[in-house]
């Protein structure tokens, strides 16, 4: 299975871990909020891995520059989530946006090395 499909499947499973409880406890607004946060996290992590994979066997300067770009992508995703929290605070429950983001991004970040092989 290709790395992007594996990232997507794991991200979808993690997103479901937020969306389903959100839907049960707070309704469709919480499910949508969780899905929104999860989508931002999944896009950020897939982008970071896509930047790093081509230079895994390269020299250290190339590797480090791509690694830094991947970290910048994750940082930008955090800013996107912060902006979403501010803009949507009256429309969607902000807890579920943040939960969707963190529940997807953190585990994917910790198992990133599996997707780089």
Could you describe the 3D structure shown?
This protein has one domain (3-115). Helix 1 (3-26) packs antiparallel against helix 2, helix 2 packs antiparallel against helix 3 (60-87) and helix 2 packs parallel to helix 4. Helix content is 84%, strand content 0%. The protein starts with a helix and ends with a helix. It has 5 helices and no strands. With 117 residues, it is an all-alpha fold. It is elongated and about 50 Å long.
Secondary-structure topology with pairs:
Blueprint: H1 3-26, H2 28-52, H3 60-87, H4 94-110, H5 112-115
Helix pairs in contact: 1-2, 1-4, 2-3, 2-4
Number of domains: 1
Which regions have little confidence, pLDDT < 50, spanning 5+ residues? none
Along the chain, the helix and strand elements come as HHHHH
Q: Report strand %.
A: under 5%
In total, how many beta strands?
A: 0
Total number of helices: 5
Q: Structural class of the secondary structure composition? A: mainly alpha
Q: Radius of gyration over alpha carbons?
A: 15 Å
Question: Considering DSSP H and I runs of 4 or more, what fraction of the residues is helical?
Answer: over 70%
Mean pLDDT: 94
Major β-sheet, in short?
none
Summarize the structure.
The chain has one domain. It has five helices and no strands. α2 packs parallel to α4.
Structural features:
single chain, 117 residues, mainly alpha, 0% strand
